[in-house]
Amino acid sequence: MPRAIDVHVHPSTVEFVDGAMGEYTPACEAHFHTTLPRHTVEEMADVFRTAGILGVLFAWDAETNTGLPPVSNDFVWRCAREHADAFIGFASVDPLKGEAAIVELERAVRMLGLRGLKLHPTAQGFRPDDRSIYPLWEAAEELGIPVTVHTGTTGLGAGMSGGGKMKLEFSRPIHLDAVAADFPRLQIVMAHPAWPWQDEQLAVALHKTNTWIDLSGWSPRRFSPELMRNIRGPLQDRVLFGTDYPFIRHEQWLDAWATLDVPDAVTEKVLLSNAQRLLALDG
Ligand SMILES: [Zn+2]
Question: pTM value?
């Protein structure tokens, strides 16, 4: 049994850092005040094993919008298969690829056994409530998998001219409100405290019980009083520990969390049992 489940993990390997992130990596490193490692899969798995943390490892496919190579679902499948004590795999598909994206999602879940889908509207260049995307939501609901969707600003293109062509507006949480309404059996995880639209995100989460918030990408030291009030209170069963590894490291996040005044029972939900429920893992 891991002591925590990190629901937001990118590979700290060349496939992600130099491949899928490409020319965005230096700006991203500056944004997070970090230098990214280039691990082997074994080294990456050891980071999680040593920490006693099970990581939800994300594939990445924003090929149409960025022209950069994907982190394939097969790569993530191999990581999770070889290191089942360290990782659970989430698929990624490129929504702009249309029908091919749906076929790939079905393959990734049914054939490879990946346990969820990760999307990034800004990186992938789509608006979640666009009707052309609805068949993808329908497929995810049908497959019974949770979908994690990036919300709020992003380190991708941060500090670059034109934001590296990245459009923030696609990642407004309110666009997921319609999706959650139209697909009530679909579990939607809004990734990150969605600055500058955190009120919007909290409104969606408070209104629709098939939505969740992952707390990755920010140090808990910077969580707003309003977010903390909801974590301690009405949203305590639907907020999830996540780091956005390798941009933020486990000890960085957990040390900051420990300085906050959160009851132990709530910490246990955030670090472990909420994710076990979302991912249907045995507790
Ligand atoms: Zn991320």
Answer: 0.97
